Amino acid sequence: MIGRLRGTLIHKQPPWLIVDVNGVGYELEAPMSTFYDLPELGREVSLFTHYAQKEDSVSLYGFLREAERRLFRDVQRVSGIGAKIALAVLSGVPVEEFARLVQTGDVTALTRIPGIGKKTAERMVVELRDRAADLAGLGAPTLGSSGVPADPQSEATIALQQLGYKPAEAARMARDATAAGDDAAAIIRKALKSALR
C-alpha cells in the first residue's frame, strides 16, 4: 500500500522518524537521502509512504520524493532483496546515479553500496536494466517541488504511464493530444481516443 503522510515532524534519528498527524504519531523508517532534506523538528513535513505487511510485522517507510519511493519498491522486486537493502541503496547513492549504474552495468560501483555483493549487483543489473530510465525519471515528466506534475500535459503523461504506456509513448501521446487551455482529463481523453484509431 502506498500513499502520502502530512504532519509535524516530532522525532528524527536515522533510520527512524516520527510524524504527528492530528495527535497520532506515525513511526517511519527512511533512507538517508530523505533525512538529509528533512525540516527541523516541529515543522510540517509531507512524505510519500510505503506500507508493508508481512506475516509477523507491519512497517511504514517514508520518502521525501516519489522517485525514491519508486526505486525502493522496484529494487525489492529483484530476487533476494528486501527493504533493508533497498534502504541501503537509497542511502548510498542518488536515484539518478543508481539508474546510470544499472544502465551501464557497473557492477563494481554497485558493490560499493553497503549490503550489496557482486551477485546481488549482477541480479540488479539484469532485472532492472530495462527499467533504469524510468527509475531515474528519464523521459518522464518533471514533478514540481510539491510532488505534483508541473502542468496538465505532464499530469496526463503520468496518467498514461500508469495505464501501461511506456514513458516515451505516453509523452508523445500527451503532446499530440494537447491543445491550448486543455486540462489533464481532456488531454487523456483525446490521447486514448486517438490510440483507438
Mean pLDDT: 85
Structural class: alpha+beta
- Report helical residue fraction: 40-55%
Alpha carbon gyration radius = 18 Å
Percent of residues in β-strands: 15-25%
End-to-end separation in angstroms reads 35 Å
Stated plainly, the CATH topology of the largest domain is called DNA polymerase, domain 1
Largest sheet, order of strands side by side? Answer: 3-2-1-4-5
The top-level CATH class of the largest domain is Mainly Alpha
Along the chain, the helix and strand elements come as EEEHEEHHHHHHHHH
Q: Based on the structure given, which CATH architecture of the largest domain is correct?
A: Orthogonal Bundle
Number of domains: 3
Helical run tally:
10
Number of strands: 5
Q: Give a short account of the largest sheet.
A: 5 strands, antiparallel
CATH homologous superfamily annotation of the largest domain: 5' to 3' exonuclease, C-terminal subdomain
Low-pLDDT runs: 138-149
Cα shape: globular
Task: Give an account of the 3D structure.
This protein has three domains: 2-63, Nucleic acid-binding proteins (OB fold (Dihydrolipoamide Acetyltransferase, E2P), Beta Barrel); 66-135, 5' to 3' exonuclease, C-terminal subdomain (DNA polymerase, domain 1); 152-195, Helicase, Ruva Protein, domain 3, CATH 1.10.8. 44% of the residues lie in helices and 20% in strands. It is built from ten helices and five strands, in the order E-E-E-H-E-E-H-H-H-H-H-H-H-H-H. It has a five-stranded antiparallel beta sheet with strand order 3-2-1-4-5. The chain is globular.
